[in-house]
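During the reporting period, we have paired protein sequences with backbone structure tokens. One record among many follows, to show the layout:
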Amino acid sequence: MSDSDKTNAKTQAKTDQAKGKVKETVGRAVGNEELEAEGRGDQAKGDLRQAGEKAKDAAKDVFKH
């Protein structure tokens, strides 16, 4: 994975997390449980992307040595 791809994956993870937080907050504010749940799902998706990137980085460090 190139540095550009890695940066894009990290950016996408942060975008998913931020988008999810906004949806959750708006959903809660207007009483829309579906939007709120969708926001939590988007945040989880971002968290998983981020965890995957961290795992890839850790694996690369292990195999370098």
User: Anything to note?
Assistant: Helices lie at 3-30, 33-64. The chain is about 90% helix and 0% strand. The radius of gyration is 15 Å. The chain has a mean pLDDT of 91.
